[in-house]
Amino acid sequence: MDFANPVIAVIGMGYVGLPLAVEFGKKYQTIGFDINPARLKELNDGHDSTLEVSDEELAEAEKLSYTAELDDLKAANVYIVTVPTPINEHRQPDLTPLIKASESIGKVLSKGDVVIYESTVYPGATEEDCVPVLERVSGLKFNEDFFCGYSPERINPGDKEHRVTNILKVTSGSTPEVAEGVDTLYRSIITAGTHKASSIKVAEAAKVIENTQRDVNIGLINELAVIFNKLGIDTEEVLKAAGTKWNFLPFRPGLVGGHCIGVDPYYLTHKAQSIGYNPEIILSGRRLNDNMGKYVVSELVKTMLKRRIHVAGAKVLLLGLTFKENCPDIRNTKVVDIVAELQDYGVDVDVCDPWVDAAEAQHEYGITPISEPAKGDYDAVILAVAHKQFAEMGADAIRAYGKAEHVLYDLKYVLPSDAADIRL
Description:
By secondary structure, the chain is α/β, with parallel strands linked by helices. It is 40% helix and 14% strand. It is elongated and about 70 Å long. The chain starts with 6 loop residues before the first strand and ends with a strand.
């Protein structure tokens, strides 16, 4: 273990890996590894298409280089894994990227090296799933020849206030000495400080419950929104009134997508079920949140029918495709659930999102966003994502996309309460 003179390899140059590599690359020799040639080209050209790191910040990381060649990683003695951990079509954890990253590291691992995982996993995954792969491929023995740590990522895509350096970092290691070394390494770049967990499993569990807690709370608010809509009460007005109490949590209803909140609970419930416990509250919240796309469409269809707008063959404009506002991230976006449900009704759907790369949307979801919707062309407009561009447009400009008789559905409380026909 040589934490005094680290050469750091960050595996995966995505939303999590790149900001971390940039910060380490300001102080230490750092290698950014990714298997996507196009991604490496843009980074070498000094630009980040995810918009998490500015061109100026990339230039400041003078000790950071990029590669897709595994042999280039042999110079490293600290490996940090930041690959995605998605779920499959059965909503079960898909550890394939994590296992493949571990296999790659195993091919270049040397005695004394440390492998730190940042990807979200269930408690036990690092030592039970990843370590055996490292041992098998490298031929080295865990906690004798090489060591591991876990420091969960806390990146919030699109958030320019909470950045990697000013978010407190949880750290851990496979031995007390490694735990101290991992903590010291991160503390050297994290201005907000660190919290050294007592074990890797504790750190893994802490990460997975952070977003599970948010998911359950949003599920509660979504259920309240359904109830209040049936009662004819404006949900936002209720939340504003309740929010005057000092300890009321400021959650809002909506679609729960993205790479964390809509995924992490399934990692925890998978592990719980593997030990014979069937989670109730967590899965209930997940079911409710997963069905919000269908609920949105059902409310829209009811309103259209009340206004004698024919549903089959109707044209609907969706404003927004990303999983959250003001970022280009479309991973696990639940807006696609609305698209699919509308198409089941025979509706012709157009999607407009100024933040999205059209080629990526087509590749991931078979959706090609349009750049400029035709005015007066739509039977309904759904404001699905609260991008600043949509907020700046205002209700009149958004309504201009609709026909003389149309429905405007504001899912994100972007517009004043009396400006939309339906609100979530």
